[in-house]
Specification:
By secondary structure, the protein is of the alpha/beta class. It has 13 helices and 27 strands. The chain has helices at about 1-10, 25-40, 60-70, 85-90, 120-125, 150-155, 175-185, 200-210, 220-225, 250-260, 360-370, 400-415, 445-450, and strands at about 15-20, 20-25, 50-55, 75, 95-100, 105-110, 130-135, 145-150, 165, 190-195, 215, 240-245, 265, 270, 275-280, 290, 295-300, 305-310, 315, 325, 325-335, 340-345, 350-355, 355-360, 375-385, 385-395, 425-430. It is globular, with a radius of gyration of 22 Å.
Length: about 450
């Protein structure tokens, strides 16, 4: 991390961040980092496990970097995961919590954590490196604590890249949010922090701050389409939208491209365990992509994607090591065409209808193209005859009865999907079908979603 902080010094008075309308320079960030490190010196010893309770802000980024410079093992705790903070701190063995109060001042609270040590933490301390603990979504059980060597992870960005004015979307407790931070700091970019991540605030922030790059999720892009905010704000500065964190629906990609024809769209791919891979889309409007790049290697085994990364995690805090010859099984099923891959979705989400495989995103894309559908989540429900059947939770734009919608849906899907892919069980919902991180809620049954 010292190399990164030296790099920050090279940009001096160039702007590095716009937080709620105020611009900050790289020099101001460096000064704030040193100030915070001085404040925590007596309370947070190097090598200790520290919870960083903050979302993206100028002070929040400075706190994160101060903990890194202090060689702490950092556990980011954002509002997105507020209900899980106690679990995260228990799993990680957090002994002290630092955060930013309402006056933008640092606060420090000691935590009565049980004596906690393991080989992963000992490795970091012996090397004198900062650590980073992220957590899996926990959709298939308890969240896994993922331990990274933060110095090594930051080294992935030394090769350099382009300087962008980048809107912040994912927080620092998500690998995508860490990726945005490290990439922008290494390359002298400007991080632009919107008031919120709702479509209107994001569009207003792009207009007011000449935003160029928006890293986001397919779910947010669907909300952006529905909001009609694209036509209300000047988004002419926007050059690139990167999307990841979940499979993209083809209908969503086509619609957003038609609304923003001058913007380039790029699919990203990565895991909390491996870091973010370099990607190259075959062409705009396609979901075929090459993944890999320097420090990464990929292979396909039984239709599943495996990744070997020079920037992989050290291991899990509360699960067995997943490495096989240095590769990690992503759990993602892919279709292959030469060097090009199409990400189909997690095998754990695959629906098996009497031996026929159904990927939820394919069905969702068809249902999403119905004019009355605002959002939809497809999942597998048990069936005594076929083992599973396709089920869907649908949020409608118009007031339509369930029987009317099911009848229209069957007619609409008949020419677009094989019969076994057409949802048998349909539930209507007025609630949001996405999480705080703007990803579809796939870890609940349909009954629980409604």
């Amino acid at each position: 991390m010292n190399c990164l902080l030296k790099q920050i010094g090279k940009y001096a008075d160039q702007p590095c961040m716009i937080d709620r309308g105020r611009s900050y320079s790289f020099n101001e960030l460096a000064a704030q980092v040193l100030f915070f490190q001085g404040q925590m010196a007596e309370h947070i010893p190097p090598g200790s496990v520290a919870g960083a309770m903050t979302d993206y802000s100028f002070q929040g980024v400075a706190l994160f970097l101060a903990l890194a410079r202090n060689r702490n093992i950092i556990v980011p705790l954002s509002k997105d995961s507020l209900q899980k903070h106690d679990d995260f701190m228990e799993i990680a063995g957090v002994s002290v919590v630092a955060g930013i109060d309402e006056n933008n001042q640092i606060f420090i609270r000691e935590r009565n954590a049980a004596s906690f040590n393991n080989d992963l933490y000992r490795q970091l301390r012996s090397m004198g490196n900062a650590g980073l603990v992220l957590f899996s979504s926990g959709s298939s059980g308890s969240p896994k604590g993922i331990v990274h060597n933060l110095d090594r992870l930051a080294g992935a960005y030394k090769a350099g890249g382009k300087s962008w004015r980048t809107l912040i979307f994912l927080q620092m407790d998500h690998i995508g949010g860490v990726n945005t931070l490290l990439y922008s700091l290494w390359n002298g970019g400007v991080l632009v922090i919107p008031e919120s991540r709702m479509p209107e605030e994001v569009c207003q922030c792009i207009q007011n701050n000449q935003g160029e790059l928006l890293p986001t999720s397919p779910t947010f892009l669907n909300l952006l389409i529905l909001s009609n905010m694209i036509n209300r704000y000047d988004l002419s500065s926007l050059k690139l939208i990167t999307y990841g964190t979940e499979p993209m629906q083809e209908i969503t990609l086509k619609r957003i491209q038609s609304l923003l024809p001058r913007v380039r769209f790029k699919q990203t791919y990565g895991l909390s365990e491996t870091g973010i891979l370099q990607t190259k889309s075959r062409e705009d409007g396609t979901l075929w992509v090459k993944v890999g790049g320097n420090g990464f290697d990929v292979r396909i085994k039984d239709g599943r994607l495996w990744i070997k990364s020079a920037y992989s995690m050290l291991g899990y805090l509360n699960a067995v090591s997943p490495f096989e010859d240095g590769y990690i099984d992503t759990g993602d099923m892919v279709e292959r065409n030469g060097d090009w891959l199409k990400i189909l979705g997690r095998e754990s989400e695959l629906i098996n209808v009497g031996g026929n495989k159904v990927f939820p995103v394919e069905v969702e894309s068809v249902l999403q193209s119905m004019p009355e559908v605002e959002d939809v989540v497809v999942y597998g429900a048990s069936n005594p005859l076929t083992g599973q059947m396709v089920a869907a939770v649908v949020k409608l734009e118009a007031t339509v009865s369930l029987s009317e919608f099911k009848s229209a849906m069957r007619i609409f899907c008949k020419e677009r999907l094989e019969s076994y892919k057409i949802p048998v069980k349909v539930l209507l919902s007025e609630e949001s079908l996405h999480s705080e991180r703007f990803k579809k809620k796939r870890n609940m049954t349909g009954e629980e979603r409604c």
